[in-house]
Amino acid sequence: MTPTLVRQHRSHADSTSRVDPWARARDWSEIQERMLVPLYEAVHERLEVGPATRLLGLRCGSGLALLMAASRGAAVTGVDTSPERLALARERLLPETARGRDAGRGENGGTRARTAPRLLAAVDADAAGKETAGFDVVTVFEPAGCPAGDSEGLGEQLAAALPAARRGAAVVLVGWGPPERCATSSVLRVATKPADPLPSARGWRPARRDDLEEVAQRAGLKPDGSGRVSCPFGYAGLDSAVRGLLSTGLFDAAIAATDAKQVDKELTEALHPHRRQDGTVWMPNVFRYLVARVP
What residue spans carry the region label Disordered (predicted)? Predict the structure, then answer.
């Protein structure tokens, strides 16, 4: 199966000019993205993702969930707004292309079962769908609802992508669990400190009970079950925890409204209660996912 990665056009102004996008993308890929592996595994298992699956990953980040689906035999396509994260996804999913090797040769010189890698030069999920129609699974593993205004934007993004999905296809939406079951919630409150964050920045708010159902309804989907998965956030130390959490983008509004050093300081202080005797940082969390169907 051929992994396909598509860059989606940015729909809002860049309010984070003081942020190094490549450093953030690397921190996401190397530190933070793995925290959601239990969620990826649970969803893939529930939907029986395998060789017969054509999967579209919206907001695919640096591609770890896509890689896991591809390892189960699925044909995967990824869409994201970040060129930096998408470049890292290409390194993961298309290593032969990234190194300039012959993608059609195996380790012993034989021909691979997969066809040659193909990348689409599309600017949004709608354009991607027109060229790669027939998805039976659509995933959005980036937690919905927590950034202000995120649910509305996701509903529109799904509506654009769904014509590419088959009737009855599964659409998976993800959100944070109840704040009382997510230790990281107390740390994320640092992102709400600025009194007047920039309107285009993705600030944080506590998850609401019906966030995922509202997105599904807005996109015209029919809910078909849900689940909860334990996804503890574990870091080697405070520095790693700060870098990982900053890579989510949830603190960019605070950085734009105040100062990066100030946000780093407040994050470090908020993380201290979660630091263990060996210096590691550990925060138990629960994430919720909703499976909806394309009518």
Answer: 94-113
